[in-house]
Write a structure and sequence with these properties.
It is elongated, with a radius of gyration of 19 Å. Strands 2-1-3-4 form a 4-stranded mixed β-sheet, covered by helices on one side. The chain is about 45% helix and about 10% strand. The longest helix is centred in the first third of the chain and has 14 residues, at about 15-30. The chain has 2 domains: about 5-75; about 85-165, Glutaredoxin (3-Layer(aba) Sandwich). With about 170 residues, the chain is of the alpha+beta class. The protein starts with 6 loop residues before the first helix and ends with a helix. About 25% of the residues are buried. The protein is built from 8 helices and 4 strands; from the N terminus they run H-H-H-H-H-E-H-H-E-E-E-H. Bound molecules: FE2/S2 (inorganic) cluster. FE2/S2 (inorganic) cluster binds near residues 92, 97, 133, 140 and 142.
């Protein structure tokens, strides 16, 4: 329950089945010291992200202040407060990529897939993030999709590249 309401009423992703699994994870780790990070990792493995209402739920379950949970989630880039798509697109906004036209690439991604930064496209196919230099400036502009690095990306090529990811 969250402020007297079922979590699923607040966030449809948090079904009774998901919450039961979260309870199970909390139950396993509750009495162990340093349990917060393992719990957050396991829960994110199920839900894909850690929205604030779920953080509050975990905070009460583990008896850890909500501010501590929030602090950990925002500190480690591994954790996400927004849903992730099946494929995460990371677009480099470092200087070399910027100079070589990554803004136009980004615009094309956003318009072709109706995708906003920090959001998920329809059907949870893609999520979009902006990142700093990926250390591959010689390939600028650079985009990473899942574990694949794509260099010299142009607005014309980017849609074809992304169409390979279903
Ligand atoms: S600035 Fe984009 S890879 Fe370095």
């Amino acid at each position: 329950m969250y402020f007297g309401r079922q979590l699923s009423e607040i966030n449809p992703d948090l079904t009774a089945e998901i919450v039961a699994k979260v309870d199970e994870i909390i139950g396993v780790h509750k009495s162990k010291p340093g349990s917060l990070i393992p719990v957050l990792e396991e829960v994110q493995g199920i839900t894909g992200y850690l929205p604030v209402e779920l953080q509050d739920y975990i905070s009460r379950g583990l008896n850890v202040p909500a501010s501590t949970v929030y602090g950990v989630v925002t500190f480690y880039s591994f954790f996400s407060m927004v849903p992730k798509g099946r494929h995460t697109i990371k677009v480099c906004m470092g200087t070399a990529c910027y100079v070589r036209g990554v803004s136009e690439v980004l615009n094309r991604i956003q318009s072709a897939f109706k995708l906003e930064v920090g959001k998920v496209s329809e059907g949870k196919r893609f999520s979009l993030e902006l990142v700093r230099c990926l250390g591959a400036c010689g390939l600028a502009p650079v985009m990473v999709v899942g574990g694949d690095t794509h260099g010299a990306v142009t607005p014309d090529r980017v849609v074809d590249i992304l169409d390979r990811y279903k």
